[in-house]
């Protein structure tokens, strides 16, 4: 108990695990990868996984931390979001209540997972009676928008995202709608920095598939480049105003991009984070 348990959801973008998984490996006590037994997404679409990926996984897992959890994660009578929540709950149960339950998607890259794990261990008291003292721990997303010839366009303002909980009563995605503690930790989210076809695949197979107007979004996305990005705003695929503007950094590969983004002051101020945490404490006080 009191372990740092990390769970990944493996689907059509499984190749990105080669970037995201090594970033957490050293500081995780155990890693679980959830994979539908029939290789289906939350909408029921089929995908394939190259055998070479499992060979890489076996070679990489030098400390025998990784387990693949295969189950039936698609029920046709459920919506994509309901299937997502169900899979996350099943995965969390496999990881073990009484531990810190961290769920990371394949396209999410922790800049300093060691620091995040230490922030959790400082709060191990919440693991004593997790159902009664439900808590969520959130870091801050830097959402990547589009690759350019020499770098990346990203959403200029960091947004918070829940990654860990002591009790997985998920209601929407990873959100349990319980008290949140915000910690100053950056996660690079390779959200839309993909090809047009990869974006279409994502938008038609994830939990929000029924909410996105794919063609309208792509019409705008295709127009934006490193020269004109300052001319565009309201860029989010669900509620456009949530992503107001883009910014740009150079980088020829993801390692360089992560390093360059980490060198920028993208986190909210300490005062802002303290204020958010006080507000959450007071909201759930009674």
Features:
286 residues, 9 helices, alpha/beta, 29% helix, ten-stranded mixed sheet, single chain, 10 strands, Spore Coat Polysaccharide Biosynthesis Protein SpsA, Chain A
Care to describe what's here?
- With 286 residues, the chain is an alpha/beta fold.
- It has one domain: Spore Coat Polysaccharide Biosynthesis Protein SpsA, Chain A (Alpha-Beta Complex).
- It is 29% helix and 24% strand.
- It contains 9 helices and 10 strands.
- The chain has helices at 17-20, 22-25, 51-60, 80-95, 113-121, 196-205, 214-221, 254-262, 270-283; strands at 4-10, 30-36, 66-71, 100-105, 108-110, 135-147, 151-155, 159-165, 179-189, 246-250.
- Strands 1, 2, 3, 4, 5, 6, 7, 8, 9 and 10 form a 10-stranded mixed sheet that branches.
- The longest helix has 16 residues, at 80-95.
- The protein is globular and about 55 Å long.
- The model has no long low-confidence stretch (mean pLDDT 94).
- This is Glycosyl transferase family 2.
- It comes from Salinimicrobium tongyeongense.
Termini gap: 28 Å
Query: What is the correct CATH architecture?
Result: Alpha-Beta Complex
What is the helix content?
A: 25-40%
Question: How many β strands by DSSP?
Answer: 10
Low-confidence stretches: none
CATH fold topology: Spore Coat Polysaccharide Biosynthesis Protein SpsA, Chain A
Largest sheet: 10 strands, mixed
In one word, what is the shape?
globular
Rg of Cα set: 19 Å
Percentage of residues in strands: 15-25%
